[in-house]
Amino acid sequence: MSECYRLNLTRRPRRMRRTASLRALACETEVLPKHLIQPVFVIEGEGAPEPIESMPGIFRLSIADLIKECRELVTLGISGVALFPKLDASLKSDDGREALNPETLVLRAIRAIKAEVPEITVIADLALDPYTVHGHDGLWDAAAQDLANDATVEVLAEMAVLAAEAGVDIVAPSDMMDGRVAAIRAALDGNDFEKTAIMAYSAKFASAYYGPFRDAVGSASAAGTHSLDKRTYQLNPANRREALTEITLDEDEGADILMVKPAGPYLDIIREVREETELPLAAYQVSGEYAQIMAAAERGWLDLERCRDESLLAIRRAGADMILTYFAKAFAAR
Ligand code: PBG
Questions:
Q1: How far is the CA of 18 from the centre of ligand 1 (A)?
Q2: Rounded Cα gap, residues 167 and 116, in angstroms
Q3: Which end of the chain is more exposed for a tag (fewer CB within 10 A), N or C?
Q4: Residue 153 belongs to domain spanning
Q5: How many whole angstroms from 191 Cα to the centroid of ligand 1?
Q6: Domain of 298: which CATH number?
Q7: What is the mean pLDDT of residues 166-179?
Q8: pTM of the predicted protein model
């Protein structure tokens, strides 16, 4: 026995991992339903929920079903919904003018939710991709082969005022045009909507993980491709410093909440932004992150619940206050 090598340790971190209650006491990060926002897709009419093939468990809902869904989400303790309309192809145009129709689908959805389930926070995306035939987030300048920045910003500011009139709590510009947060703030304030908050998609990367979402809102089919090239406006996935520039600009322009998107592949950015700003920080676990976990779980290659929970925990640990995630309802119902 005396020959045996004997460790003489004073520090044994494993002591605090020995029992469930010790582990609970030492736990540093939590994900609670109140941290989560459920993105929801809304369609015209009274039809049954439409499944989205690349997003198992997620459906496009009529306004009536959306109301029911919001009631369930509130009961489960979820704080908010982010609305995305899927328009009939006949309503899409080159300039996305349906976005400024005061009776457009998403505005009716906002009014209905705020009338029936006022306690849930309603977030409306501001971008033209559900409304344009080309699927881009703004007005496409064919000659320049680029989005027309300043003209797009004007439309976004008008969309913001319409959403505020409909009663939305938060508008969320997801387009990445320069200067849009300041313009939206000015338009809201100019129309006496100084209480409407802005969640800025500040560091939104030109990611391949948006594929299933483009199926869900039909912006991919409109563009004829999944891999619609948005690299002239969304951030280069290689760029960390440029993401911080966008964060600083949106903060200076008056954003109330900043966002990093996608979440899982960009945890370093979330951490860096967390250390850079005092504002609330959102992270968007996007459609492709959801689809990856669901697909692997369907094959029996990953444990769905454990991977889901771990993916959300990692995003909170990186520094996000709130998470937009397609797992919100399932997580809260667990
Ligand atoms: C577009 C928009 C996108 C998402 C939210 N708003 C896709 C895109 O930029 O093409 C992606 C969300 C997801 O993938 O879950 N304004």
A1: 43
A2: 12
A3: N
A4: 31-332
A5: 28
A6: 3.20.20.70
A7: 97
A8: 0.95
Gap between the Cα atoms of 270 and 274, Å rounded: 6
Query: Ligand 1 test: best mutation among 174, 233, 260, 324, most atoms within 8 Å of CB?
Result: 174
Six token digits for residue 26: 């030492």
Q: Is residue 190 part of a domain?
A: yes
Taking the centre of ligand 1 as the mean of its atom positions, its distance from the CA of residue 74, in whole angstroms, is 24
Enumerate the active-site residues.
204, 261
SS3 (DSSP) at 50:
strand
Q: How far apart are CA 178 and CA 193, in angstroms?
A: 22
- The domain tally of the chain equals 1
Question: Does 7 fall in a domain?
Answer: no
In a domain, 12, yes or no: no
Mutation test residue for ligand 1: of 37, 81, 137, the one with most atoms within 8 Å of CB: 137
For residue 283, the SS3 value is strand
In a domain, 25, yes or no: no
Helix ranges (H only) for the chain are 20-25, 63-75, 105-116, 149-166, 180-190, 211-217, 219-223, 241-253, 267-276, 287-298, 304-318, 328-332
Per residue in 191-220, pLDDT (tens digit) is 999 999 999 999 999 999 999 998 888 876
In tens, the pLDDT along 208-264 reads 999 999 888 887 655 555 557 899 999 999 999 999 999 999 999 999 999 999 999
Ligand 1 neighbours, Cβ below 6 Å, are 125, 127, 129, 137, 174-175, 210, 213-214, 230, 286-287
Nearest CA to 270 among 281, 279, 280, 278?
281
Q: Of all protein residues, whose CA lies closest to atom 2 belonging to ligand 1? A: 174
Are 120 and 81 in contact by the 8 Å Cβ rule? The answer is yes
